[in-house]
Write a structure and sequence with these properties.
Elements (H helix, E strand, L loop, with lengths): L2 H5 L3 H4 L6 H12 L10 H24 L10 E3 L3 E5 L4 E5 L6 H10 L4 E8 L7 E5 L11 E4 L7 E6 L8 E8 L30 H10 L3 E12 L2 E9 L9 E7 L4 E7 L22
Parallel strand pairs: 4-8, 9-12
Antiparallel strand pairs: 1-2, 2-3, 3-7, 5-8, 6-7, 9-10, 11-12
């Protein structure tokens, strides 16, 4: 059909068409037919229904965005003002956006993706503020798979990490979120110190030096010293170790320092290898840890 042809139709071209016999017969049939009642769709009703559908659609989209399980079970992702968590095939991707948020906001997110997690806000060194510490399994990890955390850089949030952890682990898991420590308040560390590992003093290597030498360096920097003896003991055919907090009176000046770590803003712990006259290694005994403390 050519629209230009239709545009050229004039009223005079249709004059007399209604008087044709076929036209009159059709008109008579229409006018004599019994009319059925017509249901009118009210515009107001139609608009209201459309509004309800739109709101329902928006609610669904919002629920998916924050990871609410719409058909039951844990979500694959969740986000709130404090943290966002996304579950992948092998790990959970955790982005901390507000490390100062209430711990319940973090617990809410972990539990939304199926993890039974307790979160504690713990005092840390300035470099660890806002970081995720853990996961810690107080009763020991005895389950399939593995558990651990790896920080990710670069990170557009306050902290980003991959957390390896079975989603069906039934035990208690504790995470810490680093907060600024008060002056002199002991820091919570991320795991034990290796016997020959950490160095607290910038530009200074403590490993292999005597206690007297390291203590002199601390005094020069206006820092105090704490002491931990590093004990070794046989364990299933191998050698394990643990560290024990001791007073200064237990330490000899010529004993060798294995490593150092900041204990607080004004104190550095010296991890010391016991000398020959230190006596036999005691039985390992756990000290109270931050994840065991009440909230």
């Amino acid at each position: 059909m050519n629209l230009a042809d239709l545009a050229r139709v004039r009223d005079k071209d249709l004059a007399g068409e209604a008087s044709a016999p076929e036209t009159r017969t059709l008109m008579h049939a229409i006018m004599s037919e019994e009319r059925e009642p017509v249901t009118v769709t009210r515009p107001g009703r139609k608009v209201r229904r459309g509004l309800v559908l739109s709101l329902a659609t928006m609610a669904t989209v919002a629920a998916v965005a924050v990871g609410i399980g719409l058909v039951g079970g844990p979500a694959t992702s969740y986000a709130n003002a404090a943290v966002s968590i996304k579950k992948t095939d092998g790990y959970f991707s955790v982005n901390i956006t507000d490390p100062t948020a209430d711990r319940r906001s973090f617990e809410e997110a972990f539990r939304a993706v199926g993890l039974k997690v307790t979160v504690k806000m713990v005092p840390t060194a300035p470099s660890d503020v806002g970081k995720l510490i853990g996961p810690i399994v107080p009763g020991g990890f005895k389950w399939h798979g593995s558990i651990g955390t790896q920080g990710i850089t670069p990170c557009s949030s306050a902290f980003c990490a991959k957390v390896w952890m079975p989603a069906d682990f039934p035990g208690r898991v504790v995470f810490g979120i680093g907060r600024p420590a008060k002056p002199g308040e002991p820091y919570v560390g991320d795991g034990p110190v290796a016997p020959e590992g950490d160095e607290a003093l910038s530009g200074y290597t403590s490993h292999g030096k005597t206690v007297a030498d390291v203590r002199t360096e601390l005094s020069r920097r206006g820092l105090k010293a704490g002491y931990r003896l590093v004990w070794q003991y046989p364990d299933d055919g191998g050698i394990s170790w643990f560290d024990e907090a001791v007073p200064a009176s237990r330490i000899k000046n010529d004993w060798i320092v294995a490593s150092t770590r900041f204990h607080s803003s004004d104190t550095v712990d010296l991890y010391v290898t016991p000398g020959k006259d230190a006596g036999p290694a005691p039985s390992p005994h756990p000290e109270p840890q931050w994840y065991d403390m009440p909230d």
